[in-house]
Amino acid sequence: MTLWGGRFINESHKLFKEFNKSLSFDYILAEEDITASIAWSKTLMKSGIISKKEQTIIESALFELLIEIKNNIKNILKSNCEDIHSWVEEKLINKIGKLGKKLHTGRSRNDQITTDLKLWCRNRINVLLENLIELQKSFIITAEFNHSVIMPGYTHLQRAQPITFSYWCLAYVEMLRRDVSRLKDVLKRLNISPLGSGALSGTAWNINREELALSMGFSSATNNALDSVSDRDYVVEILSSASISMMHLSRFSEDIIFFNSGEANFIELSDLITSGSSLMPQKKNPDALELIRAKCGRVHGSLISILVILKSLPLSYNKDMQEDKEGLFDAIKTWNDCLCMAILVLNNIKIKNKSCRKAAEEGYSNATEIADYLVKKGVTFREAHNISGQLVLKAISEKKSLNNLELSTFQMYSPLIQNDIYNNITLESCLEKRLSKGGVAPDQVYEEITKAKKRLNIF
Ligand code: ARG
């Protein structure tokens, strides 16, 4: 049965019914719909719309329903109801009869759906925050464990300057910290209750919306009913946060895929998260990471989709807004799955110390050091840069690393270069000099790891 049949003479077409239904996806809001309905029943009671006894009966029946769905939420899908709100109401009426029909007094599905959705988002955000923290912990532990591993840092995917594996890990910790801060920010704006907004202009019943909001853990009630039922900013904001964080995860994936390639050979991925080829027996493919990289696109798609759905939508509620859910549900699940997968990848990674170091030694990544050395001897940076570049060219032609050039060769390019050049261009020296805040110096990195461990309660 529909919630709105009175005004109609004819039944809706079978095809339209199917087209209009949202139960197949909004059933996952069942728990939230029941929670908000219990809170609403208490508000109705406090305002004298139903008696204390009636409220108790409604609450117990809804509670019973909650236990039933916790046992098997998928049972809901057997129903023919239009959406989750109709389903909860129908079940309530089946349980307690006519009294169940009082619950919708002063309420609309328009304020109901956005309340349910906000409650659902709030719960999911808490899980996501936990996993964003877990992933940070994995990075910190990997960083600590690989403190002494030197590898090349890249720009343009060209070996640029030496860094450490720890330092690379800490870069991702910074990104994840921003993801956490963004999500917490979303939570602040989201956690305001729309319930009691009615269809669009508020409810004609004398209810205390602030008290109702607080009873559901919201920080306050919304200020304008017209906005409350139209607002899906929080969906856009969550999907933006998801998109940015997924972009971070896809860059992580791409880095790891490269580190794991035969060409780089910096790490070995665990059998736990790789797969083989059906044809080529030697293959061990980084599927987990390739999937994270691709799923990023899927989440970005959901963000674009909600933006386009909401663009130019007149106030207030329009059925278009039913299309907010599938993309959101999918994106949140995808994001969370990817976080869990990234944790699994990192916790089982093996870093190949020797080949990392070899690559850092081979890539002329200490060329900046020669320029800086000359600057200290009074040469301008531009000039020093040029001399260092010529030395790189010379080293390439002699098939040597810069460290292996003869002193006489160095001096052909600048007589200012002395024997102390060699100590100045070791990988260790390159790292140690970068001690200023945010630099790669091992002492600095160690301090950052210590701070992060404190912040994340890692002992
Ligand atoms: N299933 C609807 C949605 O997800 C619920 C709200 C329906 N409101 C209405 N006026 N038809 O948006």
Can you walk me through this structure?
By secondary structure, the chain is mainly α. The chain folds into three domains: 14-105, Orthogonal Bundle (Fumarase C, Chain B, domain 1); 110-197 and 223-353, Fumarase C, Chain A, domain 2 (Up-down Bundle), CATH 1.20.200; 358-455, Fumarase/aspartase (C-terminal domain) (Ribonucleotide Reductase Protein R1, domain 1, Orthogonal Bundle). It contains 19 helices and six strands. The strands form three sheets. It has a two-stranded antiparallel sheet. Strands 3-4 form a two-stranded parallel ribbon. α6 crosses α19. The protein starts with 13 loop residues before the first helix and ends with a helix. The mean pLDDT is 95. Bound molecules: arginine. Arginine binds next to α6. Keywords: Amino-acid biosynthesis, Arginine biosynthesis, Cytoplasm, Lyase.
List the helices and strands and how they pair.
Blueprint: H1 14-20, H2 23-26, H3 30-46, H4 52-71, H5 84-96, H6 109-145, E1 150-155, E2 158-164, H7 165-190, E3 192-193, H8 209-215, E4 220-221, H9 225-230, H10 233-259, E5 267-268, H11 287-310, H12 325-347, E6 350-351, H13 353-362, H14 367-376, H15 381-397, H16 407-413, H17 421-424, H18 427-432, H19 442-455
Parallel strand pairs: 3-4
Antiparallel strand pairs: 1-2, 5-6
Arginine (ARG) is lined by residues 22, 26, 83, 109-110, 113, 317, 319, 321-322.
